[in-house]
Amino acid sequence: MKDLLMFIRRFARPYKWKVVWSVVFNFLTTFFTLFSFAFIMPILRILFGIDTTRYTYMELSDGDIKDVVLNNFYWYVSELIADYGASSTLALMALLLIIGTFLKVITAYLSDFFIIPLRNGVVRDIRVQMYNKILSLPIGFYTHERKGDIMSRVSGDVSEIEVSVAASIAALIKQPIMIIGCLAMMLVVSWKLTIFVFILLPVAGWIMGSVGKKLKASSMKAQELLGEILSTTEESIGGLRVIKAFNAERQMSRLFGNETEEFLKVSNSIQRRYALAHPMSEFLGTIAIAIVLWFGGTLILDGSSTIDAPSFIYYMVIFYSIINPAKELSKIGYTIQKGMASLHRIDKILSADNPIKDAPDPVRLPAKDTPHVGISLRDVDFSYDGSRKVIDNVTLDVKPGMTVALVGQSGSGKSTLVDLVPRFWDVDRGEVMVNGHNVRDYKVSELRSLMGNVNQEAILFNDTFFNNIAFGTPDATLEQVKEAARIANAYDFIMETPGGFDTMVGDRGCRLSGGQRQRISIARAVLKNPPVLILDEATSALDTESERLVQEALERLMKNRTTLVVAHRLSTIANADLICVMHEGRIVERGTHDELIALNGHYKRLVEMQNLG
Question: Which residues 6+ apart lie within 8 Å of 108 measured at CB?
């Protein structure tokens, strides 16, 4: 219950007026339910002719309000019988029962009408919060999480909340009102019988609750297993070429089969326990009705109670009206336990701390269209796990408009170093400066607006050429996009496609070659027109012809910009203003191409290995 209240405070508060109106109409539903049933008693008395009392009209001050209201009701019915006959009065009572039932169902519909936007809105809000949080969390968060498990939380866990917790909110508003209203009327009709009900219902509720205790833990396990299944599926689709090349279909099939088998066992356990809720609640309800029938009948037969047969039948109708709401509440206990397990998994993302925060009083950035942006690193240390240094005491000055290349063996820290400039990660020690200010002093979004990235893996979206190039520049015109494509050597092959710039590129650009994808990503950076350019091995995965076209595009892009280049092919950076050789997280050599060759050190060995000396 504590978790549920927390859920309501966090997600249902914006819909409080929907809740208020739903509560109002639920009270009206309960009122019309009880008083439409009230017309059953005079109908029974007329049918069986068991009431021979002569009633007279009473004022409210003449006695107990309950006795006065009942007396005047029966006086009015007896007057109708005397004036119009028993059959006409019976027809009138039946008509009033129909009208009461009609008002009951209308108010019941209106109570749902106002609660439906809450239920669906809460789920929508959770999805939006999840997606926005996924976008805002730093890259480091996802190095410890499996992509399939993240997808499972966004899809499976949110859906579980939709069918369990959010759907249960309506029942939690409706059913208690009905139960409280019925219990109140039962107290009015016979307090002795109602004492029995007060004893029986908590006992039945305790039994039901004990069955559902383990649902939360089982549901948590099931969602985790579903995340593993989605991860395996995603990895298998992405690595299908490798799986087939190494004849590993059986191995992957066995792994997937084991995961799905374990998921099946847990799901069977959950569903069997959940399926037990309805028959158990029905059986316990029947026991309660049987006990009340026995006890109430005993009171009537012994003459030890003021309740008569019609009143007892009315009492049993009201009591039976409690059974279904009680069943629903017992099932809600199960569904909420399942939903809370999913909510805790979602909360792992929603409550995750983002260490990459905006400065409380950010400094002003230089204009985006100026090339005069300098970068400095001062005694920078960085590690991913807090122990092994990936960047070790690096100091580097990149003057405005300068091209600096970082070279070295794989794992030497080149890509990590350039990732520190746009604050994809924060340094452990030292400072990263842009135009003389620590990058932590800027707003993150404004800092990154100064920078354009072209990476080894060209990330494209399943959209048109136009939208991929204009990504991040929503106000771009078609002419601007075309000009960017020309600069990036992409215009010709785009226009050869059937739809030109409106042609879809496929999932992650699967309809394009590696060189074409890279040129589209370069066009995207050209359109952004950033003063700082970061090129992370942008040509290393290309063939010779594609590399030539991409390199031409990059050279156009690099003009008059401050550029950091991570290079694998040293031929692409021979004309850089400064080349820094990295080894085990340190800059061990720096200078121009000719100066480094003359040093006869790390750089010359790298050149010789590539046969470029």
Answer: 25, 26, 29
